[in-house]
Amino acid sequence: MYTLNLNQMTQQEFLDEYWQKKPVVIRGGFKNFVDPISADEVAGLAMEEQVESRLVHKKDGQWQAAFGPFESYEHLGSENWSLVVQALDNFSEEAAEMIEAFRFIPHWRLDDLMASFATPGGSVGPHIDNYDVFICQGSGKRRWRVGARGEHVQFAAHEALLHVEPFDAIIDEELEAGDIVYIPPGFPHEGITLETSMSFSIGFRANSAVSLLSAFADHLIDGEQGGQLLEDPNRQVVTHSGEVSNNDYASIKSQVQNLLDDETSFKKFTGQFLTAAKHDLDILLPDEPFELTEVSNLLNSHAIKRLGGLRAFYFEDTIEQGLCYINGSELAFSAEIAKGVKLLCDKVMLHPDDLGEWSHNAAFIELATELLNQGYWYLAEAE
Ligand code: SIN
Ligand code: CO
Known about the structure:
Helix content is 26%, strand content 26%. By secondary structure, the protein is an alpha+beta fold. The protein folds into two domains: 194 residues, Jelly Rolls (Sandwich); 90 residues, Malonyl-Coenzyme A Acyl Carrier Protein, domain 2. The strands form five sheets. An eight-stranded antiparallel β-sheet has the order 1-11-6-13-5-4-2-3, with helices on one face. Strands 10-7-12 form a three-stranded antiparallel β-sheet, with no helix packed on it. Helix 4 packs across helix 6 and helix 7 crosses helix 11. The site of cobalt (II) ion has 3 residues, from loops. The site of succinic acid (SIN) has 11 residues, from strand 4, strand 6, strand 12 and strand 13. InterPro entries: JmjC_dom, NO66-like, ROXA-like_wH.
């Protein structure tokens, strides 16, 4: 179990003082930290097709970047390169555990857990992210420099590397195992590896209005919604034919506004959008589909665990109406099991004790069977 140690600060004090506002180094954020996954395993994952990875190195003073899957690392030597693997939470149960320490921030804000292996001198270069990130140092040592937010010139150091011009550091510190640097969006930063290093970044995403609108438009098109044309059967004669009257403008705007104001439809879209997986999930279907009676017994003897990287959320009101959102789809269930479904969305692992009465409820057992058969939840040994 990973416990985040904020050094005398409460989680709320951290949010008030630093979250989205300023970077900070949290010394010993994880006490006695041991890499949850080895460098060899990370390198092995980056050889797999479904895993998103990136290699960055310098050749003759020029930045180079390549996307995985990779076949070998031998040509890179023992210095000046780094390997990054995205969505490690989808592929390593042990590494995904780290995320549990950050559950004081809602899961819908989470993006993924990224692993970074780097040899001395290795770096992805100075850059700016649009994400909040907690970079947890694992084995080895890395020096982190973070600059102030402001006007920074960005440029392509390579077609796949957006870098930032040199910046003055407001943080310049060496991190060792268990130290964490939190960096909000917009702050230029670079990590330079001093000793062969592993680090793990828990990244949080926020969406722009334009990405929401564009996805909402796709959602409407898929559902054949929003296609009604503007109607004006009560039109009056005009004298200024070049004018778009205030009334006409209001009608045009309300065409769009009405779509946003349709709470049921926009909420459904939002739930589906927020739970859609950005990276491939490592879904393992059961050899044989589970039967209801079997699941009813299993829920009393086993824990059930949510698949790494799977997103499952509910809104404060939809849960009571029997609606939640899982992996990009809306899921309807009997409203009587709302509290049980909340548990599924809130907790990654549920032991028989956590489930309590729900393991005897027919509607809950039916839902659990469906989720197990989809490979979205799986059985784990109850400890
Ligand atoms: C890295 O870990 O190599 C890069 C992480 C970051 O700067 O966001
Ligand atoms: Co970064």
